[in-house]
Amino acid sequence: MLYPDTGIAPLPVSDMPDDVRLDYEEAAKISSKSPRGSAALLRLALQKLCKHLGKKGENINSDIRALAEDNVLPPMIIKVADTVRITGNNAVHPGEMSEDDFDYVASKLFDLLNIIVKKAITEPKELEHLYNKIPKKPRASAENSDEKNRAK
Hints:
The protein is mainly α. Helix content is 71%, strand content 0%. The chain is built from 6 helices and no strands. The longest helix is centred in the last third of the chain and has 35 residues, at 99-133.
C-alpha cells in the first residue's frame, strides 16, 4: 500500500500565489528526506513571493526590509527572514550547518511563508472587504478626514 507523500509541513494558506504554492508543496514533499533541498525551495518560494508583493525578487534581505519599511509586513519579519538568508547561504557551504539545523530551520520557513502571505495578502484583502461593507456616506466622510490630516 502506498501512502501519500505530503510531508509534515503545514498546508499553504489559501491566498498563496500559485507559483509560490508549487515550490512550497514540493518543499513539503521532500522536507523529511532532504531538509537542505526543502530550505532551498522555500527560499526560492520566498523570492517569488517578494515579486508578487511588488519587489524585485532578487535579494530577499532587501525585499523583506523594503516590505517592512512600506508597512506591508511587521518589522519582526526582518529578523525571521534573516534566518532564510543565512540558511540559504550556509546551505551551499559544507559543515556550516548540521542536518539538525536544516530540519529545524526548514520547518520554520514553512511558517514564515504562511505568515507573510497572511500579513501581506490575506489581511489587507479581508480589511478591504470589511471597509467596503461600510455605508458610502460614512466611508466618504472618513476618507475626507484622512485626506485633510495627510495634508497637514
